[in-house]
């Protein structure tokens, strides 16, 4: 009897700083069917030796990773340093951060919260073609995109210790995810991009549900001594600039829908999330000087700031 061959085709997508993920697909080749007469006359021993039906592919999900399990030694030291940079970015690399935000202001749960742009599995996706740049980007370019946009700052050197250790931490988060696999929980939740924003309603929702943490002007709530945010700024001079993904209505809506108000994920409807995202994303904020270079091939999403 011919051997049964199983082919797995796994596909994934990358960050959008950040867009929702596609579901991975698994294709299985059909087994070669034996002739009917051979099955009917085959001895019981031969029938018993026929290959069993393959087990279903296990769904891999993004899960919060216990940082206490980071290994000891030089590798562990680099990983822990990367985690520290991600959680205290403004303090660790102040010359590269133009506001008080940290990487984990958006990438919640130390960068491993499902549907909050987690880093689990991301390093293996790069180099990756990205429509925003119109070219194949390295992971260093992707990270520096966040520094220039979300941090409203300056890029790290590709070969800097800080860059290497950030990637070391992201890679450690990904240790249980097969390369190229798009785990459940990557990116953000799905949002209906056909919904028309109602900015007036969005303002009302912001005042009702958001100002308690983020302030009336979106200025956030700083820790004593300006040592970092308790709740990050979502508007104003200390927030992300208008070239960041969070300055786009539907990207921000997907993040808000799956994560906000804090501790109450998925409590807003799609329409409410779109409305409040449109209001928030169009509040005053720094201008990204190079956003006119984005989507050079002319395929920009409809909510891109120009």
TrEMBL record:
InterPro entries: Cyt_c-like_dom, Cyt_c-like_dom_sf, Cytochrome_c-type_DH
Record bears the keyword Iron: yes
Keyword Transit peptide part of the UniProt annotation: no
An example molecular function term from Gene Ontology annotations: heme binding
Keywords tagged on the record: Heme, Iron, Metal-binding
Family annotation (Pfam families): Cytochrom_C, SoxA-TsdA_cyt-c
PANTHER family membership: BLL4482 PROTEIN-RELATED, CYTOCHROME C DOMAIN-CONTAINING PROTEIN
Protein name per Swiss-Prot or TrEMBL: C-type cytochrome
Organism, scientific name: Neisseria brasiliensis
Taxonomic lineage of the native organism: Bacteria, Pseudomonadati, Pseudomonadota, Betaproteobacteria, Neisseriales
